[in-house]
Amino acid sequence: MRIGILGAGQMAEALGSGWARAGHEVMVGARSPEKARKLAEAIGSGARGGDLRAAAAHGEALLLAVPALSVGGILTEVGAADGALAGRTLIDCTNAYEPDAFTNAPNSFLLAEAAVAERVAGLAPGAGVVKAFNVCAAEVWTSHAGRGLGVPLCGDDERAVEVVAGLVSDLGFDPVRAGGLSRARYLEAVSVFVVGLWFAGYDARQMLPPLQEAFAHSDA
Ligand SMILES: NC(=O)c1ccc[n+]([C@@H]2O[C@H](COP(=O)([O-])OP(=O)(O)OC[C@H]3O[C@@H](n4cnc5c(N)ncnc54)[C@H](OP(=O)(O)O)[C@@H]3O)[C@@H](O)[C@H]2O)c1
Q1: 105 CB-near residues (< 8 Å, 6+ apart)
Q2: What is the CATH number of domain 2-204?
Q3: 210 alpha carbon to ligand 1 midpoint, in Å?
Q4: Ligand 1 neighbourhood includes 21 CB (under 6 angstroms)
Q5: What are residue 200's phi and psi, to 5 degrees?
Q6: pLDDT at residue 220 above 70?
Q7: If you count Cβ atoms within 10 Å of the first and of the last residue's Cβ in the chain, which end, N or C, has fewer?
């Protein structure tokens, strides 16, 4: 599949490397095409680099791998408002973290915005927006393949969700179909909440019982 990546940072590198190795045609796009080309070179496996518009035009599936605050400008630049991304799968991995001014603790975050993925869908008419890959750190996507890690997906466009499920599997993770785009805001909240636990030294998995024990048994 042709995959366009908007952004040339940590998430672009982590996910782009895995997809390129899996045989996908990856093109990285950034506001600095030179930086995008350098990252593409580091990714290897035939990955290419260019500007944001070129990467957007290339991808049947697109990964939005930029700060949440910049998605509006970037989607405008690639013509999303005019329908340039219609029919494409648009993966949103962003988190709108901001420092928690109340506690002022280092590594303590809140969300600056409650529902980035829903805003992205509004900015890209016709695109199949799927929230994915936002919960774990970039390095997890390169180090935990094949270890049964689930990747929750939220999106309204079933075809796009299936595309992303395939891309999750290609990286060695397990797709978890977690509902429509209106639930993506919960994934965004899960991310900031769980990251807070991790920074505080807790294993977030400790909060959750196994599936078989998630609900009380009936007396019948
Ligand atoms: N890193 C993680 O562990 C992680 C995990 C889950 C989700 N996320 C989310 O994934 C997204 C990307 O994170 P990242 O860690 O890959 O970030 P990053 O390493 O800082 O890279 C961000 C990319 O976005 C570009 N960018 C920033 N502002 C821009 C603007 N106004 N216009 C155009 N391009 C702009 C940067 O370009 P320049 O290089 O030119 O500045 C860079 O290519 C964020 O929303 C983050 O919350 C990150």
Answers
A1: none
A2: 3.40.50.720
A3: 34
A4: no
A5: -85, 0
A6: no
A7: C
Q: Which residue among 10, 187, 190 has the greatest number of ligand 1 atoms within 8 angstroms of its CB, and so is best to mutate?
A: 10
Are 156 and 117 in contact by the 8 Å Cβ rule? The answer is no
Q: Give me the pLDDT at residue 108, please.
A: 86
Domain residue extents for the chain:
2-204
212 Cα: distance to centroid of ligand 1 (angstroms): 38
Q: Which of 17-21, 108-112, 121-125, 170-174 has the lowest mean pLDDT?
A: 108-112
Q: Give phi and psi for 15, each to the nearest 5.
A: -75, -40
> What per-residue confidence (pLDDT) applies to 107?
78
| Separation of alpha carbons 20 and 183, rounded Å | 29
- The verdict on the CB of residue 111 being under 6 Å from ligand 1 is no
Separation of 65 CA from ligand 1 center, angstroms?
5
Q: Across all residues in the chain, what is the average pLDDT?
A: 96
Say which residues have a Cβ less than 8 Å from residue 49's Cβ, sequence separation at least 6: 8, 27, 28, 29, 30, 33, 35, 36, 37, 38, 39, 40, 41
pLDDT for residue 102: 81
